[in-house]
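Bench notes, afternoon.
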Amino acid sequence: MNPSDLPAVLYVDDDALNLRVFEANFGSKFRIFRCSTPAEALTLLEQKRNEIGVILSDQRMPQMTGVELLERARTLAPDAKRMLVTAYSDMQAVIDAVNRGQVSRYFVKPWDRAEVLAALEDGLKIARLELRIREVEGRMMKAERLATLGQVTAGIAHELMGPVGYLSQNVSSLRRDLECVVQYASKHLATDASPEVASVLEDLPSLLQDLATGADHLRGVALGLRAQARGEDMEVSADVAEVVSFAVKLARAEVRDRARITTMGEPVKVSFGPVKLTQVLLNLIVNAAQAMEGTGRPGRIEVRWTSREQNVLLTVADNGCGISQELQEKVFQPLFTTKPVGIGTGLGLSICKELVTQAGGGVRLSSKQGEGTEVELTLQRVQLP
């Protein structure tokens, strides 16, 4: 076993000989931290609080007693088991500490090796079990919250379908009605020219098409949400260039004042539904735009894709604030977010990874703090017959 993987014990004693004896007796079983003063021990605890499972201290030390040290240690490392080595003359103080819950075990000098070894092993086992219990409780809470979100999502999908239906019907009616208006206005423009009115008439078809496309997308989102809540599979193919273009349009309100966005790639189809791919890209583009806050430099977002024989590499890169190394492994966890309260839900990237993985693809994130972030999606390419 690697020494760094051994459970850690902190032993505090102002007698150098006692420190060496403790190391000689238990160094092969545990990873030992030795401190000769309470101040040194408290400093070490601030740095290693998550590594130390047991704190064992001599009671009689200058400047601070073992009981006082362990009382301070309880605040710094509440999960560590605290034990004392004491002489008979100090027993009353030790008993009082045990009654207050500051100390779980004590040993009277000269201590018995087998007794101390058994206590250390038991203490570390209990510490590990308590840690696992907290981890399980945390996962259960997350699962419960995600289950609740699934129920809410199904309700949102149901509520969306009504307004989306009205919107689609009204767009169709508006297109028919506008044809009459355009014909009427065109006759009058022939005799009474107005460049402004002519420009408006010219823009109306594209505006209506945007409304129709938006309505179709909302309907697709609602169906996708409902399908996910029911566990249904709606896998279809999508043209990457078309989806990227639409996702950029949807994200322009977030991107407009923060960054300049560029796209690069050839038309290619992937085995990924257009609604789901739009959802993934929209999350990544909005995240990239929000990462520009506080950088003090012009924002830049690049969406690019390249085709390979079996797959397509789709990348969203930015020059934003970046993500620290220790947080990069957590960003795809459900409910984890680096954004301020009220800004992020902690679900965007986890949903992106889940959708891409379900489609047989992969996600890779690389980032340098202060320089930017790059998210690369590997998607299965639709093979032409």
